[in-house]
Amino acid sequence: MVNQGKITKTHTCRILRKNKQIAKDLILSHLKKFKSEVAEIKQGEECGICFENFDDFQPGDLIQSFDYKDQKKGKQYK
User: Fold this and answer.
1) So what's the pLDDT on residue 21?
2) Are 15 and 31 in contact (CB under 8 A)?
3) What is the DSSP secondary structure assignment for residue 1, as one 8-state letter?
């Protein structure tokens, strides 16, 4: 579930486990809502998510997503 902000297909992501970064600069390969591929998931919505070159998820992992373009403007999405 997206707890804050939004996740879009163009965002770059990182994975935090126990407050330590375990993966960074991840590229989304799939973002799904139910069985449909979508471009964006908003706060409060559940989704399915897959990354290129990462599949080592564990319970409690936190995914942070961001857009480098927005980050330059001072915005940050989680």
Assistant:
1) 96
2) no
3) -
Q: What is the pTM of this model?
A: 0.76
**CA 72 → CA 15, 40, 52, 76, distances in Å?**
21, 20, 25, 9
Domains of the chain: 6-72 (2.40.30.10)
Least Cα distance to 52 among 21, 36, 29 occurs for: 29
CA distance 54 to 77: 20
Tell me: the pLDDT tens digits for 12-35?
999 999 999 999 999 999 999 999
Find the mean pLDDT for residues 29-56. Answer: 93
Dist CA 17 CA 63 (whole Å): 9
C-alpha distances in Å from residue 75, one per residue of 7, 49, 64, 69 = 13, 22, 13, 9
